[in-house]
TrEMBL record:
Xref: InterPro entries: Cyt_P450, Cyt_P450_B, Cyt_P450_CS, Cyt_P450_sf
Protein species of origin: Archangium gephyra
An MF annotation (GO) of this entry: oxidoreductase activity, acting on paired donors, with incorporation or reduction of molecular oxygen
Entry-linked SUPFAM superfamilies: Cytochrome P450 (SSF48264)
Highest taxon above the source species: Bacteria
Protein name stated in the entry: Cytochrome P450 hydroxylase
Assigned keywords, A-Z: Heme, Iron, Metal-binding, Monooxygenase, Oxidoreductase
UniProt similarity note: Belongs to the cytochrome P450 family.
Organism lineage: Bacteria, Pseudomonadati, Myxococcota, Myxococcia, Myxococcales
Length: 424
């Protein structure tokens, strides 16, 4: 199959001195700190790039947007890849990974139709914009509570004092997890949050498998309690669907709950971390937002575009495809670079400028097609409330000097910590 076949644009020829070929090095600390220069060169010089590991990276906006909606591409079978690592753990008497792998098999982002269609239709109703909008007062209440805890100290960590507890607590509230268990689910969500990233050791996978076992054991008990005493929450709703027959099994319901914590935490936490950093490095934009709170929706979209919480989507072609003169064999791993697409100047002029009133729309931070982010509406509301409150109540917010401690991941992008100061 041939897709968007056109010659790549050569770049870097202005000086007449040839540059070394650009490389997509997942292990380069400089890439983790700032991947956008590499992305720019890839878009110009090698928009269908094959890495030294044999995977492909697609970086142009038009390509990524089109291919995300193309059913020629299926999901990458991460659960099987993880399960195969069990043999190495077993040889070292370190356990196995089957619990983790089996739980992931029904994650929406790792399912193709028809399973994806069925599962998504059963969960979608709880994540429509209208349904999520009703949670705004609860989000505001939680943001106010978290900020009240640190207000008297004159400093906080945006990631661990605000973003993480907000994201996990809101998902827990939607599901109906009692407050006394929020600390446990926060620990589990944090322990499992790196499972989609390929740069994990066997020991880390073993730890995540143990966390998955704890998570599933707790939620099986919670399901049993909700069967006895239903409430107005997502777990009770899913149980009602499950008890109707063959629409949703308990294992599928467990997988849905686990995915909501993993995806919900990473997307929201990185949005708030990256967005705060962008505002603090662009004080003029922060002041514009403070002076005109009505700009908040556009500001959130610009934060998502400028430094996307999810940088890469993985896909696998079901048949050979040709793109820009290169043939990608069926079964090869492809990274669709959302972060690069959102900095493509053909779609977003002057893409490295942070502008909360940017007129160009259409960022791909929430992916696209059937795998468009389920929790996008919730992440948007959490971001709107968090940033509106921050710029209103902390006008002298300042970044603590020093290098940013970025997460050592490639799928997700965000600071590990983001310490700031303010007047108590």
């Amino acid at each position: 199959m041939e897709l968007l076949d056109q010659p790549a644009v050569n770049g870097g020829a202005g000086s007449g001195v040839p540059r070394a070929p650009v490389k997509f090095n997942l292990f380069d600390p400089a890439f983790h700190a700032d991947p956008y220069e590499v992305y720019a060169r890839l878009r110009e010089e090698d928009p269908v790039h094959r890495t030294v590991m044999g995977a492909w990276v697609i970086t142009r906006y038009a390509d990524v947007k089109t291919l995300l909606r193309d059913n020629t591409f299926g999901v990458f079978d991460i659960p099987t890849r993880i399960e195969r690592k069990s043999q190495f753990l077993e040889k070292k008497n370190m356990g196995e990974l089957r619990t983790l792998a089996q739980a992931m098999r029904r994650w929406l982002m790792l399912c193709d139709p028809p399973d994806h269609t069925r599962l998504r239709s059963l969960v979608n109703r709880s994540f429509t914009p209208g349904a999520v909008e009703s949670l705004r007062p609860r989000v505001q209440e939680m943001v106010d509570r978290l900020l009240a805890r640190v207000r008297h100290t004159g400093r906080m960590d945006i990631v661990n004092d605000l973003a993480c507890p907000l994201a996990v607590t809101m998902i827990a509230s939607m599901l109906g997890v009692p407050e006394e268990a929020h600390a446990s689910v926060t620990r589990w969500a944090d322990g499992l949050s790196r499972v989609l990233d390929p740069l994990r050791s066997l020991e880390q996978y073993a730890e995540m498998n143990n966390v998955a076992q704890e998570f599933l054991a707790y939620f099986r008990e919670l399901f049993a309690e909700r069967r006895r005493h239903p409430r107005e929450d997502l777990i009770s709703s899913l149980i009602a669907v499950t008890d109707q027959g063959d629409k949703l099994t308990e294992d599928e319901m467990l997988s849905v709950c686990m995915l909501l914590f993993i995806a919900g935490e990473k997307t929201t936490v990185n949005l708030i971390g990256n967005g705060t950093l962008a505002l603090l490095k662009n004080r003029g934009e922060m002041e514009r937002l403070r002076q005109d709170p009505s700009l908040i929706r556009g500001a959130i979209d610009e934060m998502l575009r400028y430094d996307s919480p999810v940088q890469l989507n993985t896909r696998v072609p079901k048949k050979d495809v040709t793109l820009h003169g290169k043939t990608i064999p069926a079964g090869d791993l492809i990274y669709f670079s959302l972060g690069s697409a959102n900095r493509d100047p053909t779609q977003f002029p002057d893409p490295d400028r942070f502008d909360i009133t940017r007129r160009e729309k259409g960022h791909l931070a929430f992916s696209g097609g059937i795998h468009y982010c389920l929790g996008a509406a919730l992440a948007l509301i959490e971001g709107q409330v968090a940033f509106s409150t921050l710029v209103r109540e902390f006008p002298d917010l300042e970044l603590v000097p020093g290098e940013i401690d970025w997460q050592k991941e490639i799928i997700f992008r965000g600071p590990q910590t983001l310490p700031v100061t303010f007047s108590p």
